[in-house]
Amino acid sequence: MPDIQETFTLPNGRRRYLKQAIFRFLTWGAVILCIAFLILLLGRMIVQGVHSFYHYQIILPVHIDMTKTDIKDPYSPSQMDLKIASYSPLIQDALITKVSSARSYTDKKQIFKFVSPEAAFQLRDYVLDNAQNIGTIERFAFDVASDVESYIKYYRDDLQTYNFENRELKTLLEHPATNLQKGYGVFITKGSFRKFIPEMPCQKEKKADKDVIMCDIGMTDKTFFIRVSQAYAKVNKIIFTKEGLETIYTTLMTPFEAALVNEIKNWSILKYDIPEARRKLGDLSLVTVEKFLHDGTLRSKLPNIPFFTNADSRNAEQAGIAGAFIGSVMTLIVCLICALPVGVAAAVYLEEFAPQNALTEFFEVNINNLASVPSIIYGLLGLALLLNFFELPRSSPLVGGIVLGIMSLPVMIISTRTALRTVPNATRDAALALGATKVQTFFDHTLPASIPGIMTGAVLSLSRAIGETAPLLLIGMVAFISDIPQNIADTATVLPVQIFLWTENPEIGYIERTAATIIVLLFLMVALNGCAIYLRNKFEQKY
Amino acid sequence: MAVQSICGTNLNRNINMKQDIKISAQDVNVYYGEKHALHHISIDIPAKSVTALIGPSGCGKSSFLRCLNRMNDTITKCRVTGKIIVADTDVNSSKIDPVAVRRKIGMVFQKPNPFPKSVYDNVAYGPRIHSMTRNKKELDAIIEDSLSKAGLWNEVKNNLKQIATTLSGGQQQRLCIARTIAIKPDIILMDEPCSALDPIATAKIEELISQLKDHYTVVIVTHSMSQAQRLADHTAFFHMGDLIEFDKTENIFNSPKHNKTKDYISGRYG
After folding, report:
1. How far apart are CA B151 and CA A322, in angstroms?
2. Interface of chain B against chain A, CB under 8 Å?
3. Fewest C-beta atoms under 10 Å: which of A104, A252, A378, B228?
4. How far apart are the C-alpha atoms of A466 and A472, rounded to whole Å?
5. Taking CB atoms and an 8 Å limit, are A435 and B183 in contact across chains?
6. How far apart are CA A344 and CA A458, in angstroms?
7. What average pLDDT does range A437-449 have in this prediction?
């Protein structure tokens, strides 16, 4: 009798299980790698794109004073005059009222740049609709210019704040009244700036028989501000004495009367590591952003409505995806209208009616070949045939949809044939044996049973078409288009092409919009695929 | 009879010729592409009776059955020659519309194949496409009649809306028979109707078939010799594409003339 132990020992068992373990590990690794890439991609997109879903608005009371504009007859303006008037002076006045310390030309220019150039049109549209409000003061929420917006979103984190409580700061402002203007102020404190000495080029000097250290901030690449409640002063020079006293020479950036108590206990140092010359925003803008954020003049708004309702724009803060989205939808509808009936009909003929001979076999092979033709070839076809021969409108969803439709046809035919093949022959036989004709059998039984498969195939080929860029580049859908298309013959662009266009733009506002558009496109595709799964489950029949 | 004498053995000599001949196949050949599947079959199937076709797998009995209502037309590369005379008409002629043939010669398949629709719609489909009824009342009457004849009425009458595929296998097959009866055919062809069913369901179907022969001519392909014995009035034995023997069932099983028949019914092969 053989040993039981031996009977149930697998020959080469260890080796075989080792192989199995290695193989399992490799396949598991492949799955993990795929998931890791996916998470990396999605994470990157979300981190970058999330800033595009909110934006900043600036709340301004604007005095609608037409005498300030270039209008001919400001007291009884005609509708035409109101239309062509320049409204920027009104907005500029409103800004200057807010930032009273901006007196010089360069300061004013900085402040004017807070508001998007679109604001003037927004104001114009308001005045055209509400002429009775001319002369009154109205509150508006304007979009913030993209430079300011991207500073708040991305660079303001670099502004470090050091708060002091119960540390004395003396002011040596001699003429408070005159210092309401942009002027100079001197402060004295003790041991507050000492820790920054290593970061500054300082030199020892003898002053009044004392050894002092003098640091000229203007020579460094740092920017320091002193903040007392909401009054700001830019630090120019600091003199450290041995006793620890620090004399700070500053330029006052905002009116300082609020701080004109002699003994200031609570105050802050703000430090920014990039000097003014290398920033898009000047010192005054930085300070103004802080003030505006504090008093609510600047506020963030979720969602970023212009991003979803505007078409492309040369101003990043105004650029939106509505144009591309509508273009995509139109293109898809044209694509569906072109591809679905033709594709399904061709598949039905090949699957249900065609005789099996060399010719149909030739067709079948070539349809399969067409499915693997690079999509840009279809773009060339569209260019040569639709644009040059039929002279259809360039850059239009019509042509784009036809090209994508032709591109989707082979896939549509293949998926429809697969769907038809899943209908059991027993069902067809049952109908035929009852005396139904082929057409009755098809419409009464085969088609209803294969509808979920056909729909799934159609939706999946649509979701391939929606992400297609290459063929559209060749038919001119790659132009900058700042209008939302009204019909399928208008010039338009589509979401993936919009992404392609924005990636060429180095401005940070466009970068975040690119990422946000990718998120929107991904959501759209997930929605389409979810739709396919839903359709399949809903209409699935069991045999 | 002239045709039969040309094309080989006259196998019909033992049939009581007083009985009406419903189907008369004359020199029927079936080819699947190059393959010659049925050779020169000539057979006269009597009316209002059950005729069983038996034989080992691949002997061509199903192919022959499908010839009778032109179902072989749906198979590409299948070619049928010869004459199949039903009511003085050659239904195998290319001039005859196969749809019209199937309208009169119904078929029940091996595997129950109800449409994935309600029980009602399954039975109603035939009458509807042939516009057999003028109103819903008539249609309802046909449906009740067909389901009753198929012995299914009592089981489904309370829930005609249920999806047919939720029925049990035996019920599905009886539904398929009801569906076939609903278009009022003359002949019902059955291709191993019980092979996918359990013994109880099989017994019900068999009972049903023996009732059906009062009104219809039934031709049934079966693998079960006991079933053929129980049901059939006549039995034909096919082997390798040839019709070996065709006689009254008791003659086939009790005194087969041919050695191959004897071997087969005694279970030596097949």
Report:
1. 64
2. 69, 71, 74, 76-77, 99-100, 102-103, 106-107, 109, 111, 113-116, 125-126, 129-130, 165, 176, 179-180, 183
3. A104
4. 11
5. yes
6. 9
7. 91
Packing angle between helix A322-348 and helix A397-421, nearest 10 degrees?
40
CA separation, residue B118 to residues A477, B102, B114, B124, B172 (Å): 51, 23, 9, 10, 12
Q: Which residue of B has its CA nearest to A353?
A: B74
**Distance from B264 to chain A by nearest Cα, in Å?**
30
- Which secondary structure element, helix H or strand E, spans residue A187, and what is its range? strand A184-190
Q: Cβ A355–B76 below 8 Å, yes or no?
A: yes
Angle of the A397-421 helix axis to the A447-466 helix axis, nearest 10: 140
Residues A223, A276: contact at Cβ < 8 Å? yes
Tell me the helix, strand and coil percentages in chain B, rounded to 5: 40, 25, 35
Predicted local distance difference test score (pLDDT) of residue A214: 85
What average pLDDT score do residues A94-119 get?
86
Q: Does the beta-carbon distance from B103 to A435 stay under 8 Å?
A: yes
Chain A hits for B126, CB-CB cut-off 8 Å, are 434-435
Tokens for A298?
Answer: 């600047």
- pLDDT exceeds cutoff 60 at B8: no
Task: Kindly determine whether residue A435 and residue B99, on different chains, have CB atoms separated by under 8 Å.
Answer: yes
CA distances from A502 to A45, A326, A509, A520 (A): 14, 17, 10, 14
Report the residue of B69, B97, B110, B125 to disrupt the A interface, i.e. the one with the largest count of A CBs within 10 Å.
B125
Q: How confident is the model at residue A538 (pLDDT cuts 50, 70, 90)?
A: confident
Locate the chain A residue with the closest alpha carbon to B111. Answer: A426
Write down the pLDDT at residue B189: 93
What CA–CA distances, in Å, run from A5 to A9, A14, A17? 6, 15, 18
Phi, psi of A162 (to 5 degrees): -120, 110
Q: Are strands B187-191 and B105-108 parallel, antiparallel or unpaired?
A: parallel
pLDDT of residue A383: 93
What is the DSSP secondary-structure string of B71-87? GGGGSTTEEEEEEEEET
Contact between A306 and A143 under an 8 Å Cβ cutoff? The reply is yes
The answer to whether residue A139 scores a pLDDT higher than 80 is yes
Q: What is the pLDDT of residue B4?
A: 40
The whole-number pLDDT of residue A494 equals 93
- Inter-chain CB proximity A433 and B125 less than 8 Å: no
- Other Cβ atoms less than 10 A from the Cβ of A242: the count is 9
Closest by CA to B22, choosing from B76, B78, B107, B88, is B88
Q: Are A232 and A226 in contact (CB under 8 A)?
A: yes
Nearest 5°: phi and psi at A190? -130, 120
Of B3 and A470, the structure prediction assigns the larger pLDDT to A470
Residue B270 pLDDT class (50, 70, 90 cuts)? low
Indicate the DSSP class of residue A222: -
**Residue indicated by tokens 């939302």:** A484
Q: Do B109 and A433 touch (CB under 8 A)?
A: yes
pLDDT band at A406 (very low <50, low <70, confident <90, very high): very high
Neighbours of A15 (CB within 10 A): 10
Tokens matching residue A428: 């067809």
From the list A427, A435, A449, the residue facing B129 with the nearest CB is A435
pTM, two decimal places? 0.79
Per-residue model confidence (pLDDT) at position B200: 86
Interface test with B, best of A361, A429, A434 (most B CBs within 10 A): A434
pLDDT tens-digit map of B94-151: 888 989 899 999 999 988 999 988 999 999 999 999 988 888 999 999 999 999 888 8
Round the CA-based radius of gyration of chain B to a whole number and report it: 19
**Chain A residue at shortest CA distance from B67:** A433
